[in-house]
Design a protein that fits this description.
The protein is α+β, with helices and mostly antiparallel strands. It has five helices and twelve strands. Strands 1, 3, 4, 5, 6, 7, 8, 9, 10 and 11 form a ten-stranded antiparallel beta sheet that branches. A two-stranded antiparallel sheet has the order 2-12.
Length: about 230
């Protein structure tokens, strides 16, 4: 079931954070895909409007607005510290995660029979500087959890969005299925768009490998739709 995949993707999600936070997974296709001086009015609460725009085969849950607390950050930091990252220099520093305290997150979960998505629109209380370019040796990262689960995360080409800096990672996580005693793979794509120094949108897909390509394509469409939904010209 896809809904189960939304919970088992945590290791891949942490590995993606490692790539984005340390390997600086922001991919700039050209100057036109970076934040510009164009003035926009951004309202992350408009994310909920996306529910009525999705095809009927999707089940969508609008989650309450959430403010990231120090406890939230500590949980992510502890999870990252528990991972064995290769190359080891790609382990994200704890301060990169701590900068999110106080941010407000609007969120949707979207599922179908084939795959699922978590969509977030985040607004930070303070402006933040854009990350540095990707470190070549950190474009592909392996993460091993204490329970033996393994995730291979790679920086990939992100979709182009005008006046935004886009980033993308692809993770393949191997997990043990307690019910069957077998090991299976979970495929995850994480696409994000940095709209300015206070707003970022992410779309994370979860799917079994046979549905991975379709999930990736749908996640990219969702990213563009989310940006168009919450951002408007002034």
């Amino acid at each position: 079931m896809v809904s189960e995949r939304l919970s088992v993707g945590s290791l891949a999600g942490l590995a993606a954070i490692a790539v984005i936070a340390v390997a600086c997974g922001h991919h700039r296709d050209s100057p036109a895909s970076s934040p510009s001086a164009t003035r926009y009015q951004i309202d992350i609460t408009r994310l909920s409007n996306l529910k009525t725009q999705l095809p009927p085969e999707f089940t969508t849950e609008v989650r309450p607005l959430h403010t990231i607390s120090q406890e939230d950050v500590d949980k992510v930091s502890d999870g990252l510290k528990a991972l064995t990252i290769t190359p080891p220099e790609c382990q994200p520093p704890s301060e990169s995660v701590g900068q999110t305290v106080g941010a407000t997150v609007a969120s949707l979960s979207v599922t179908s029979q084939q795959y699922g998505f978590v969509v977030n629109a985040t607004e930070t209380p303070q402006a933040s500087a854009a990350p540095a370019p990707v470190a070549a040796n950190c474009r592909s990262v392996t993460a091993v959890a204490p329970d033996g689960a393994v995730s291979q995360t790679t920086v990939i080409t992100a979709p182009r969005i005008d006046d935004a800096t886009t980033t993308a990672t692809h993770s393949i996580q191997t997990v043990d299925d307690a019910a069957t005693g077998k090991t299976h793979a979970v495929d995850q794509y994480l696409y994000s768009a940095r709209l300015d120094d206070r707003h970022i949108v992410t779309v994370t897909s979860f799917a079994d490998p046979p549905n991975s390509k379709a999930a990736s394509e749908e996640a990219q469409r969702l990213l563009i739709d989310v940006v168009n939904s919450i951002r408007r010209h002034e």
